[in-house]
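Forgive a beginner's question, but might I ask you for the amino acids of a protein and the tokens describing how it folds?
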Amino acid sequence: MDHGDVILRFQDVHFHYDHHKPVLDGANFSVRENAKLTIMGQNGAGKSTIFKLITGVLTPQGGEIHIKRGTTIGIAQQVIPHDHLQKTVREFFEGAFAEKKYDIERHIAKVLDVVHLDAPLVKNLSAFSGGQKARLLLAFALIQEPDILLLDEPTNNLDRAGIEHLTDFLALYEKTCIVISHDAAFLNSFTHGVLHLDTFTHFVTQYVGDYFDVVEQIEAQIEREQRQNARMEKDILSQKEKINFFSHKGGKMRKLASKMRDAVEEAEENKVQVRRDDATLPPFSIDSEPFKKPLVHIRSVTVMKQSKQTKKKVEVTVHNRHRLLITGPNGIGKSSLLEAMANGAEKGAVIAEGVRVGYYRQDFSGLPMEKTVYEILEQEMEKPNKQHVYATAARFLLPGDKLQAKAGSLSEGLKGLLCFARFTLQQPSLLILDEPTNHINFRHLPVIAKALNEYEGGMILVSHDHEFVSQIEMNEELDLGAL
């Protein structure tokens, strides 16, 4: 596909939420018509902030954002706002237009067909599954037929069929598309280039090529910068030894030492600032509280078929070191089952009394958003230990300044890492994980998978990320769609 004129340009854009936390420091990049680009960067680097700047939700403190006159922008957000969940499907899509659309039903039917979703117009958004909500969010952006389509983690909660359909759609999409996603295989199928946001330098670097090719380019650049700095460090150390020797001499030797000192300071300033945000999580483990009896007995489950709830008999027991994978298409009731099980509302799936449960909700509704990161981690400890909280948070890329931030202000990716940090302090006997790869940077996923594979407690997992699941030795699969 030929790329046309420049449709979007960031010119020396500066943005910060406060003066101590810059997000962009002189960002310069341009996007052409019909281009398919990915925004890449560490969790919390500010990828979603770039989307908010493009849509005008945020205004830069410096520089300019140029958008071609007459350009329309549509965004598929990560989650449906909480205050929209009681809206009907019709009311939700009516909100996509500034003026009343008299043929709104036709437009809704068209986009729902594109995202492969059967959604009655009078049904409340809260009644849909996570995967179905993801399709509704995408349809909300598409119904506007935007010149620039912004997709924020569009594959979250989608099953394999949904991801394949979205991939085909984007490959044929004849307008500009910018995507944030942790799904490397998905991105590689249609990306023309990458905007790389460095969380330490706050610069944006633009790369051309498919996604995997760009990742290799970045890794090669990091290696070159590290080698260059190593050579400069060796030379600087040698010069400092000579300075130390000459400075103890008199006359001309001391003057020479002074000149050499200036040269060393200049060399240190010229060292390349290596991209550090490509580092991943360090290895971690989740300890479990020993529990001798079976953790969970599942004798029946509630599934949703043809818009009706049905009870199905099963026989599954989860105990220590037992890992159960629950599968099935979007809307079958996987998330509802996990939530009912964790809350004790699923009579056919009973967790033994005294079992300490670590529950990862795909929408993070289990996190007390009004509390700080420090408060959330501290409450998981029997004996509060400030040093241990700080060390745990730092291990999950939540340094000191993030500890005093409220959970609600974190990026979705950092909320996910916060959940895993809680588990390491909580030491649960049973993990219930609902789409734990959502929003997480793909570089972190092998580390998380390894920790889960080595976890000694019981585990019940729902995940559409097949590569992630393949790294965990599952003992049993319960396919709700086959019941």
Q: What stands out?
A: The chain is about 35% helix and 20% strand.
